[in-house]
Amino acid sequence: FTPTPGARPRSEKAETSGMVLMAAVPVWVGNEEIIGILYGGILLNRNYRLVDYVRDMVFEEKEYKGKPFGTVTIFQWDVRITTNVKEKDGSRAIGTRVSREVYEKVLENGKTWLDRAFVVNSWYISAYEPIYSPTNETIGILYAGVLEDKYVDIRNGIFLRFLAIIFGGIVAVLILSHLLSRGLSKPIKKLVKATDRITRGEIQYILEKEKNYSYIQKLPYLEIQELIRNFNQMAAVLYKRETDLEKANDDLRQINRHYMEILTFVTHEIKNRLGLILGSAYNLSQGVVGTLNEGQKTMVDVLLRNSERLSDMIKNYFDLSRIEKEELKVNKQE
């Protein structure tokens, strides 16, 4: 036997018997009397024609990243006697043995194994079926499997592309928010400087400087244009101060309402996508698509933890929007 990780210990050191595929047909005299039996068989030990024929017929792809993609094996009890599973050096894994889990389910309990299994040195999505003798005794296992690495790579590729789309969307939202805030803040800063001059009694300076209003037409928002124009009129005509201030406040409330609508829309879209990420991450952590190794579990835990933090942040933005819309009341407590 070749030492095999995960195999069940055996007291024997080697297999001294063989497995034969037998056939028998009667020999007739005419059509009435049987005078004998024609009996023959093929030794399966190290006979690779059958397993290679089945592999070539079922699996079109031979290898993936240097490893056999589809493999077929016949076991005599728990020992590979004919196979196209390869060792690391490229030789056929003759003499290696089946894993303990498969041994217990298939050989001891006579059940079919349909699950991922560690085959010599790689994980395969596999099927193991017991082989019975003419007396209905379990004498071996028939195995077929496909390399798991390919499907893991496909899954990881889809996940990474999905993350890239989400990340790109977040970046686009941040850029848009920056442009919107910049378009609002720049004219507001000019307005603040003008009010500072007015508080210092420099109304005449403001009126002389703002006689040419052509730059106002270049501002990105009609509301801001109107606010600046009204502010200049307020500086020139003080008796209309109360009316002009009320209009300016209305304009600011309209801007804030637009801002909160954009914030609500953006956070809603992010929340929907984040729900998909959280669902996928929970499925991964629960082993829906397969058992994770320690490294994968750590990465999934990091993903879940940060996604939940982002979800809490989005909920706070939703609450802020509801407060602004007076849909949510704040009860101050000491």
TrEMBL record:
Q: Which Gene3D superfamilies match?
A: 1.10.287.130, 6.10.340.10
Q: Which reaction does it catalyse?
A: ATP + protein L-histidine = ADP + protein N-phospho-L-histidine
InterPro entries cross-referenced by the UniProt entry = HAMP_dom, HisK_dim/P_dom, HisK_dim/P_sf, HssS/ArlS-like, sCache_3, Sensor-like_sf
- Which Enzyme Commission number(s) are listed? 2.7.13.3
**Which GO molecular-function terms appear in the entry?**
ATP binding; phosphorelay sensor kinase activity
Q: Which GO terms describe its cellular component?
A: plasma membrane
Domain spans labelled HAMP: 182-243
Q: Mind telling me which residue stretches traverse the membrane in this protein?
A: 158-180
Q: What class of enzyme is it?
A: transferase
Q: How does it sit in the membrane?
A: Multi-pass membrane protein
Localization, per the record, is: Cell membrane
**Which Pfam family, giving just one, matches this sequence?**
HisKA
The UniProt record lists the keyword Kinase = yes
- Report if keyword Chloroplast is assigned: no
Q: Which UniProt keywords apply?
A: ATP-binding, Cell membrane, Kinase, Membrane, Nucleotide-binding, Phosphoprotein, Transferase, Transmembrane, Transmembrane helix, Two-component regulatory system
Where is it mostly found?
membrane
Protein name as catalogued: histidine kinase
